[in-house]
Amino acid sequence: MELDPSAVIWNRDDRAGRPLLVILHGLGASERDFVPIFPMLPDDLAIASVRAPIDFAPGAAWFQPQQSDALAREMDESTDALVRWVATQSGHPSVGILGFSQGGAIAVHTLRRAPELADYAVSLAGFLPGVADDTALGERRTPLFIGYGLADDVVPRAWTDMLVDWATPLTEVATHFYPGLTHAVSEEEIADASAFIRAHLP
User: Fold this and answer.
1) What whole-number distance in Å separates Cα of residue 178 and Cα of residue 181?
2) Reduced to 3 states, what is the DSSP secondary structure of residue 103?
3) 169: cis peptide before it, omega within 30°?
4) CA 42 to each of CA 20, 28, 34, 121, 199: distance values in angstroms, whole numbers, following the listed order
5) Which of 65, 61, 36 lies closest to 49, judged by CA?
6) What is the rounded CA–CA span in Å between residue 13 and residue 10?
7) Cβ-contact 172, 142 below 8 angstroms
8) pLDDT in tens, 89-136
9) What is the DSSP string of 157-201?
10) For residue 2, what are the CA distances in angstroms to 8, 14, 150?
11) Whole-structure pTM over 0.85, yes or no?
């Protein structure tokens, strides 16, 4: 399982020497979905919106949504594919990962499987996936932004609470709840995430 480098959408051509932010879309979406938020993020970033590696109409997925014996394996394989792709990028003084829903889950899982990869992560409407040895993450205490809409009818509030409970002793977590926000992102949430990212740039 690998990411398709031809499916990556970048915000700019002059990327060398700029902090890298990788954006991970949600279930059935694509690398195009979060291009509209590029202008709302810090303008000195090199932003890469990537496509998940599993076909799932009308777009792609990081793992199949059904509970199955393959679920943990798909989470691990998709995360490892992301880690390998990021390793092909060079010349960036820092790396951040921002994901929505399934993408938020993979952003969190990346912290668990490759804690040395990212300097911070942003999980929007995400949740805690899979299993991992979190010893190294607890030693690093990577900054993690968790955003959740209180009207989300896809990701239960209990999943977010579980994520926060897990993250609190292991990361430098910043939690933001948004009344009235459904399973989506808002300008307020992206503004908060942008400020978080800005605070953790070199």
Assistant:
1) 6
2) helix
3) no
4) 11, 27, 15, 15, 10
5) 36
6) 7
7) yes
8) 999 999 999 999 999 999 999 999 999 999 999 999 999 987 889 999
9) HHHHHHHHHHHTTTSEEEEEEETT--SS--HHHHHHHHHHHHHT-
10) 13, 25, 34
11) yes
